[in-house]
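User: Hi! I have a protein structure encoded as tokens and I'd like to know what sequence might fold into it. I'm fairly new to this, so please keep things simple.
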């Protein structure tokens, strides 16, 4: 019976070390001013959000309800998010980055130039990412649409991170935020 109690802490230790495999799918339609974001954890869909702009307001739509969101962040919150991003940047393992899209403008020449420009920008992004994450698999497939005006981009990003690294980054960000706040108070006193 005592050996079963040993399994509970062992489960949490394994969960802390085992990497989280997160997949993010993003579809962006510029003409309709909307985006769809899906987040998966170990092939289980966590959330799907539809975001769109109407009357210069940002709307967030889930399966259950529709919310209107105003985004206002203080300096402290922006610093906290940037600090988490800096701490997590080196701890994540980027697995895949795939872009798909369809571009169509009024003129065939403009469509070809826009498609080529987007592909060049994506290839430059891939070259930049390969310097930091050399094991990442990357691809881009942007096709021109000469019949009608359309601009749709889809991105698929897959990365892994351990829960320990995630919690550690949150703690480091909190401590650095507190130390900066404490440093400002001590200078003022």
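Assistant: Happy to help. Inverse folding works backwards from shape to sequence: for each of the 189 positions I chose a residue that suits the local structure. Here it is:
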């Amino acid at each position: 019976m005592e050996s079963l109690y040993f399994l509970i802490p062992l489960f949490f230790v394994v969960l802390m070390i085992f990497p989280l495999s997160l997949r993010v799918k993003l579809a962006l339609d510029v003409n309709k001013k909307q985006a769809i974001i899906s987040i998966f954890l170990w092939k289980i869909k966590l959330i799907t959000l539809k975001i769109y702009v109407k009357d210069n307001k940002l709307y967030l739509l889930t399966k259950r309800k529709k919310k209107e969101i105003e985004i206002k962040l203080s300096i402290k919150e922006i610093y906290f998010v940037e600090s988490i991003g800096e701490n997590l940047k080196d701890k994540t393992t980027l697995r895949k980055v795939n872009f798909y899209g369809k571009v169509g403008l009024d003129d065939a020449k403009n469509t070809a130039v826009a498609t080529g420009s987007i592909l060049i920008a994506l290839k430059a992004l891939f070259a930049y990412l390969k310097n930091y994450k050399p094991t990442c698999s990357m691809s881009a497939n942007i096709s021109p649409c000469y019949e009608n005006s359309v601009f749709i981009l889809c991105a698929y990003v897959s990365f892994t991170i351990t829960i320990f690294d995630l919690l550690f980054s949150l703690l480091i960000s909190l401590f650095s935020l507190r130390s900066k706040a404490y440093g400002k108070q001590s200078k003022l006193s």
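A useful reference point when you look it over: Residues 109 and 146 are 9 Å apart (CA to CA). Feel free to ask if any position seems puzzling.
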